Amino acid sequence: MYRAWKQLEPFVHRTPLLSSTTTNNRVGKKVHFKMENQQKTGAFKFRGATYKLMQLSKKRLENGVITASAGNHAQGVAYAAARLGAHATIFMAEGTPLAKVNATKSYGAEVVLIGESFQEAYEASLERQKETGAAYIHPFDDEAIMAGQGTIAMEMLRQEDRLDTIIVPVGGGGLISGIATAVKHVNRSIRVIGVQAAGADAMYSSFHQNSVNHLNKVDTIAEGIAVKQPGSHTLPIIRQVVDDMVTVNDEEIASAIVYMLERNKTLLEGAGAASLAALFKYHDMIPSRHCGVVVSGGNLDIGRLPDIQKLAQRQNAFAS
Description:
Layout: H1 2-8, E1 17-18, H2 21-27, E2 30-35, H3 45-54, H4 58-62, E3 65-69, H5 72-84, E4 88-92, H6 98-106, E5 110-113, H7 118-132, E6 135-136, H8 143-159, E7 165-169, H9 174-186, E8 191-197, H10 202-208, H11 234-241, E9 244-248, H12 250-264, H13 270-282, E10 290-295, H14 305-319
Parallel strand pairs: 2-10, 3-4, 3-6, 4-5, 7-8, 7-10, 8-9
Antiparallel strand pairs: 1-2
Helix pairs in contact: 1-8, 3-5, 3-8, 5-6, 8-9, 9-11, 12-13, 12-14
């Protein structure tokens, strides 16, 4: 992990760790937002993608790279590939927000839209990889990807050494695997809590049961964590080093998006707001004095804001 941090340090933004008095008062603890929505490409995925590509030989890069993504990994791979002179082919689901598709194309990648979910795009990308021999850059189930994402925790603990809890959004598990591994190496008493969308809870159910659960479909506004099955490499790590896993519904995620936009003038995507939604929902059950909240990304399609606001209003009416 230290090697990843040293190699990435010249290339990534050291994103701020911010606090909010309003949020602190609301949950009764000091909250520290790790603003990865301010990372290059607008999300944490740039870290893992860049570190993974840096491990490839020049010959491998010349043959191109390929991946599937819900959007943020796509931008990370596309940007890193452009910097390293490699051609990138990205498979994405047909319903991927246009902002993420256009951003990926703007970095010079070839984008293929196919299927209704990440899983379908992933399977199609594997077929293309067999045909071309390009290096496959998995969005989460890869040790180098996890190590790159884990550099977030190394930054957080340097920015605030009093952190006793870190809340992390979870899709396939690459982000939380890296963060929890780094955290537990430094201080095993720091709690790491994962958050999944209730409509895409494969990792949550697999974590709490002695099984590996695959979903037939996913349904959530947090497309960045809408994954049908946990990673084969990430799940064992998560079971070993993550303390708990919880879920939040779309109304709760939407309410967190609107809250951050109104109170902190910060735009989050669904996945990026999931950890804050969990803090709002479970704060009475989280015994923390200094709680880190990973804001994983901010690549929200602005056209979705009216629907998100309606979901948030429904949540606020229910809460009241």
